[in-house]
Amino acid sequence: MKWVHRIFWAGLGTVFLALGMVPAARVPVIGDDFHALFETYRISNGSFLDAIVFGWNQGFLAGHLNPVGQAAGAAYHFGAFAFSSAFEISPQYYDVFFGSLFLWLTVAAAASVLTWGLRNAGVRAEVGYWRVFALVAAVTAVTVQLHPWSNDPVTSFGPAGWGSAAIGFWLLALALRSTTPGRRGWGDYVLVGVVALGAVMYYEMLVGMIAGTAVVYLGALLRARARRDSAGAWRAVGMGALGVVAPAVVFVVGRALLAIPADQSNYTGTSLSLGGDALATWWAAMVGALPGGGWPYLFSMLGGQVSLNAKSLIVALLLCGCTALLMYGWRRSSSLTPPATRSAVIPLGAVLVTWALTTATHATTVKYIDEIKVPGQVYLYYGVGVVCVAILISWGIMAWAERIPMAGRPLVLLVIGALLVTQVSLNWRLATESAMAFAPNRTLAGAAITDDGTEQARCDALAGWIERPWPTYYLTVVTTDVQENFESVFGEPFCDDPVVIARVEELVG
């Protein structure tokens, strides 16, 4: 009957994540995702292979060294327009589906980190991967925060946000698995080497994940030496060479060769800046990943007015029901308590370092020091940070839940319920504000992927969109790409209204 339990826990975790993402699913395609939705298809002339080549080449520009990630991103955005126009459905469905899939893969990887972390720390009992998955998914779904920024990985940047997080957590899980006492074989070396090299060429943020795996290999080496396990010590050294040293050399050498002097670059996202401002940004980013960490800023953005409506209440009640089901199933399962041993420092330390240094990869750059001042202002590191926190909270739940006296458990449940209802209400309100603010995006995207509507309707969509205060470069690219893509796919002009065209030209200058 083990398969029944696995299906139960896997299904429960998936439902948690689906409910947690309901508010985010209401936000239209925004920011650079909206820009790339049209640009990638036009630049590649409708060729999937050319889109990948374009992305790969972009990965060596502006001081970047992320050709793998850029190629994956280009393929993703090409697919968004190609799929939407082929089936004439809103690209938001594509975005929500893959965003939710990337989140699911991230939590699945985080559950693997926790599972192998428990085994690495000395848990002898059957851990049960899907049971751990359900717990991490529950904590993530209850604590994840939406933010009114276009660079919030919860609602945008799917391949770079949750996609990067998934790769990084799988890499950390591989490190913990490969150094678990008694582990042998060469397969781990191959996996660790390939994934680590791919990670640093996927997105620079994953250097923080490499640092996290370094903690694992160092801890495994010290543990093996203390136990006089020469085989284990050499294994830790070999894994560290492939999983830390090799990718670090590739990253450092590549960045040195591709570096652009500050006075020649118009992009500050890869320009380092160390000092008090960087520390303040890092601290704000770290706090923002904690449950409720961004609330003061997020509430202030809404004027302090957040109320529980019928739809958000239904989502909150469903999450409460799933939480009760999780607690019931957990009580009926075997005890799973992490041991308080020195080996527990290895997985816990690795997750903490991963969280801290992944955040630092952005907090120490000029661009994000200028943009991120308080908890609640985020960038892609939030996707890693909030799941790192979920792993640590899950570890704490397993370690301390059974030690809470019966008299104190109702109070704990009350606190969880209050957190859950507040977070869902806040997320729903933020999603509503974003849906209203970016409604022209949804209208224009809907008109650009089908020829079922009239030209007048398309011109109205374009006329409404261009009146928003977009930067000139953004306005220029989107209006050009929308019209060229539509004519390429459907064989007719998107909008020939001279008044609208003249207004576009006036705004573009």
What characteristics describe this protein?
509 residues, mainly alpha, 2 domains, 21 helices
Q: Tell me the series of helices and strands, N- to C-terminal.
A: HHHHHHHHHHHHHHHHHHHHH
**Average pLDDT rating:** 88
> Helix tally?
21
Radius of gyration: 24 Å
The N- and C-terminal alpha carbons lie at a distance of: 69 Å
Low-confidence stretches: 262-269
Strand content: under 5%
Helix content: over 70%
Give the overall form: globular
Summarize the structure in words.
- This protein has helices at residues 2-20, 31-43, 48-58, 67-87, 91-121, 129-143, 162-178, 187-200, 207-226, 230-258, 276-288, 295-301, 310-332, 345-363, 366-371, 381-400, 409-437, 439-448, 455-466, 472-490, 498-508.
- With 509 residues, the chain is mostly helical.
- The chain folds into two domains: 2-437, no CATH class; 451-508, no CATH class.
- Helix 11 (276-288) packs across helix 14 (345-363).
- It is globular.
- The protein starts with a helix and ends with a helix.
- Residues 262-269 have low confidence and may be disordered.
- The chain crosses the membrane at residues 96-116, 128-148, 154-174, 186-203, 209-224, 236-260, 280-300, 312-330, 345-366, 378-401, 407-426.
- This is Glycosyltransferase RgtA/B/C/D-like domain-containing protein.
Give a short overview.
The chain is mainly alpha-helical and 509 residues long.
SSE map:
Blueprint: H1 2-20, H2 31-43, H3 48-58, H4 67-87, H5 91-121, H6 129-143, H7 162-178, H8 187-200, H9 207-226, H10 230-258, H11 276-288, H12 295-301, H13 310-332, H14 345-363, H15 366-371, H16 381-400, H17 409-437, H18 439-448, H19 455-466, H20 472-490, H21 498-508
Protein name: Glycosyltransferase RgtA/B/C/D-like domain-containing protein
Organism: Cellulomonas chengniuliangii
Keywords: Membrane, Transmembrane, Transmembrane helix
